[in-house]
Amino acid sequence: MNPVIMPAMPVPINDQATMLRELVSDKKESAKLQDRITGVRSIAILSGKGGVGKSNVAVNLALALAERGLDVSILDADLGLANIDILFGVVPKFNLGHVMKGDKELSEIVFKVGERVSIIPGGVGLRELAELDEQRQSWMINRLSFLEEDTDLLILDTSAGIHKNVLSFALASDLSLLITTPEPTAIRDSYSVLKSLCQTSGGTIKIGLVVNMALDEKEAFLVAERIISASEQFLDFKIPYLGCVVWDSELRESVKKRKPLLLGDSQSPSVPYFRELARKIFDSSEEGQASKKRLRRDTFLLRLLRQSGAREKR
Questions:
Q1: Exposure winner among 13, 180, 203, 281, fewest CB in 10 A?
Q2: Which contacts (CB < 8 Å, 24+ apart) does range 85-91 have?
Q3: Is the residue at 157 inside a domain?
Q4: What is the value of pTM for the model shown?
């Protein structure tokens, strides 16, 4: 894929404060966003490149949502560099591949890492899942039913970049979060991911933008504006901006300590931003939680397997 040159978006300094106020006060735009993410039960965390803090967002967002009373499962769907276990300081012996082989039940590979948070090591099992024939898919749906029966929200930490499996996970999820940083390469690669998702979904993908490692909210907003403007101009698609997480040295230290910030009582600068992102998603998902039985008929796993079947027929 040819690199995308992001259009320059010069913003007069005098207008920046006005733009920020409009972002907060524009109720009409907030209503549109609410319509886009109502009924969320599965979230795919995406990024255009590695090193943007995607897994940290997945982990701390899960913990922030658990604080609101949701039972959250994190499915480590990074088929190349799975590291959710490292961030929590645990060492799984088994993964989804063992379930697919019939060696383990799903409940035997799940790690409880918080009162309401569990992690599910994916490994090669997720790649194999999309390659099963129809009979084996039905068998796996039954074996994996625990995954969506005992959780309110499933968060998938996917691989960085544009891969077939990443696109499949994003399209099968109720909502995708595209994580970027202010770095030019991260912005360019995020746009490339968004372009692929828009083309694959026909512009129907439900996705929100999160700017990580920003110096402050102003910088994050300006980064978001560049991606939003480019997607509107070249893709005829407006990606909602869900917020940011500011640069935080304590977050970096938490990775070294293998203990996520929100697992304790940290007063780190980034903590309120994770909680605000969780609030937006939680508020939008109340309708989905109230109608859980209806939504279960079209869950993440069913959509993922349906996509696999559609590819086989083409």
A1: 13
A2: 85/111, 85/119, 85/121, 86/258, 87/55, 87/56, 87/59, 87/255, 87/258, 87/260, 88/59, 88/113, 88/119, 88/258, 88/259, 88/260, 88/263, 89/257, 89/258, 89/259, 90/119
A3: yes
A4: 0.81
Element containing residue 120 per DSSP (H, E): strand 117-121
Domain, as residue range, for 170: 35-313
| 137 is a domain residue | yes
Query: Which pLDDT score is estimated for 146?
Result: 65
* Residues 207/197, Cβ–Cβ less than 8 Å: yes
Backbone angles phi, psi at 62, to 5 degrees: -60, -45
How far, in whole angstroms, is CA 187 from its chain's centroid?
17
What is the C-alpha to C-alpha distance for residues 3 and 280, in angstroms, rounded to an integer?
32
Provide DSSP, 55-76.
Answer: HHHHHHHHHHHHHTT--EEEEE
How far is Cα 29 from Cα 251, in angstroms, rounded to an integer?
A: 31
Mean pLDDT per block of 10 residues along the chain (314 residues) reads 44 50 46 48 92 95 94 83 85 82 84 91 65 65 66 89 83 93 97 95 94 97 97 96 95 93 90 96 64 49 64 49
Instruction: Report the C-alpha gap between 270 and 36 in whole angstroms.
Output: 26
CA distances from 259 to 86, 113, 253, 266 (A): 9, 10, 9, 11
DSSP 23-62: HHH-HHHHHHHHHHHTT--EEEEEESSSSS-HHHHHHHHH
In a domain, 286, yes or no: yes
Helices (H) and strands (E) in the chain, counts: 16, 8
- SS3 state at 208: strand
Number of domains the chain contains: 1
DSSP for 233-270, written as a single string: HHHS----EEEEEE--HHHHHHHHHT--GGGTT---TT
309: domain CATH number is 3.40.50.300
